[in-house]
Amino acid sequence: MKRNIVKAILPAVLVTVALAGCGKSGENTGTVTFEAIEDKENGNYSGTGADGGADGETSGQTKANEADEKSSQLYEDFLAGNAKAKFTGEADLGSYINLGNALTVGESYTLDEIIGNCEKGDEIEAFTFTGKQNSYIDCGQDGNKELLVELEYGAEFTLKMIVKDMGGELDIIYSRDQWSRSDLEINDDGTIESSGSGGATIHGFDQAYIDADGKYHFYYGSEEYGMPYSYYAVKDGEYVVLDFEGLDTDHFMITSYWISDAENKDYYYTLVELDDNYEVVENADLYSESNPFRQKFDQAGIPVYTAEEVNRILDDRAAQIGYPIRK
Q1: Fewer Cβ atoms within 10 A, N terminus or C terminus of the chain?
Q2: Residue 66 backbone zone (phi > 0: left; psi -120 to 50: alpha; other: beta)
Q3: What mean pLDDT, rounded, does the chain reach?
Q4: What global pTM score does this model have?
Q5: HEC sequence for 62-128
Q6: Can you give the residue ranges of every domain in the chain?
Q7: Tens of pLDDT along 154-184?
Q8: How many CB atoms lie within 10 A of CB 119?
Q9: Is residue 206 classed as helix, strand or coil in its secondary structure?
Q10: How many CB atoms lie within 10 A of CB 29?
């Protein structure tokens, strides 16, 4: 991931994958491997001296180390089945494996209980547990560890949970599943990236993060729709059908963006022209009033935005929610 994710939202490579490689997303069934946070980076130094610390360690550092050791023990106890984590219902975003269908908000569960309850499935289908992975991340980069648990159900589905020590009590602060046509990456700084495919020419992406207090923040979502013969755009919360009949849509793509995860989203639309290799073509006339695709949006009273304008909107959004731009 590039340092400024906002500036990388419309690379030609992404468009090529979206339109020319429709099977790519569906073939990714693996899970993400994370490196554990270095103890030294977390201030987790060993040993104490006469002043209560080693190598000039302050009393504040000693307390931080003790808290980190208690958290680590809690996480280990949870993994071993000797401690429970409370299902808060916050950031419970699973589609096929949804903790809200398996657990009760406010109740606490061992890891085995969570696995078993999810394995029962719901009215759609049942899931068979096949294995798990775990690692440590640092949401908000405050030096305090959070536990990332990945539960694998068959060859197709994986449920990922973030468990946090909230003052001696473990809470499940985030959960979401990934499957054969979607991918979920939880980075070691608490940033979250999810992508999926709805077909050969439809691909979606969203981004969020968990802060140091364990709170979930949605950053933005986007969807690429290539070669649209017609398109459902949103105006004032209602769908408006745009008809592109008679136009060469084989080299045309619409990308929509939204910066709210609520039901009533504010959408921002950009227009993209592609060459025969499905790579982006820089066309200064794409947004001119005489462009037939632009005219369809104008006739419906729906504004369109250039990529630069969307970048500025997303920059403002990142600043508003404190999104950490990763290096």
Answers
A1: C
A2: alpha
A3: 81
A4: 0.78
A5: HHHHHHHHHHHHHHHHHHCCCCCEEECCCCECCCCCCHHHCCCCCCEECHHHHHHHHHCCCCCCCCC
A6: 1-28+181-327, 31-179
A7: 778 999 999 999 999 999 999 999 998 899 9
A8: 16
A9: strand
A10: 16
